[in-house]
Amino acid sequence: MGTSYDTVTVGVNISSSGDSVLVAAISGKRIYLMDLALIVAGATTITFKDGSTGTSFGPFIMPAAMTFTLQNSGGIHQAYASAGPGNNLVLNSSNAVQISGIIRYRTA
Question: For position 1, what pLDDT does the model report?
Fold first, then answer.
């Protein structure tokens, strides 16, 4: 039997290029990206990052009017990306386009 984790759901509303903080750093805690559902209005490349210079998940090349979904299912609680203790979970967009949706994360 898998371990159950409490997740937090937050909205995403980004329209600028460069780094945008999805989840602010939490002292002494890692942030784990568990699920996401995003609508990307224009063509861009997005990357999830551990802080401003840390390791990344991506890049994902997105055409205009793209829906991007990652969902944990079947009791598997594997994170897609993470940010180390004291680091922000960041989304980097190569172009200034509207990115809307939700992410779910947990901390440990």
Answer: 35
- 20 and 93 Cβ atoms separated by less than 8 Å: yes
User: What is the structure's pLDDT at 76?
Assistant: 63
First-to-last alpha carbon distance for the chain, in angstroms, is 20
Bridge partner residues of 93 (DSSP): 18, 46
Question: Could you say which of 3.30.420, 3.30.160, 2.60.120, 1.25.40 is the CATH number of the domain covering 8-107?
Answer: 2.60.120
pLDDT tens digit string along 71-94? 887 666 789 999 999 999 999 999
Quickly list DSSP for 48-63: EEETTTS-EEEEEEE-
**Which residues, other chains included, contact 48 with Cβ-Cβ below 8 Å and sequence gap of 6+?**
22, 33, 56, 57, 58, 80, 81, 89, 90, 91, 92
User: pTM of the entire structure?
Assistant: 0.89
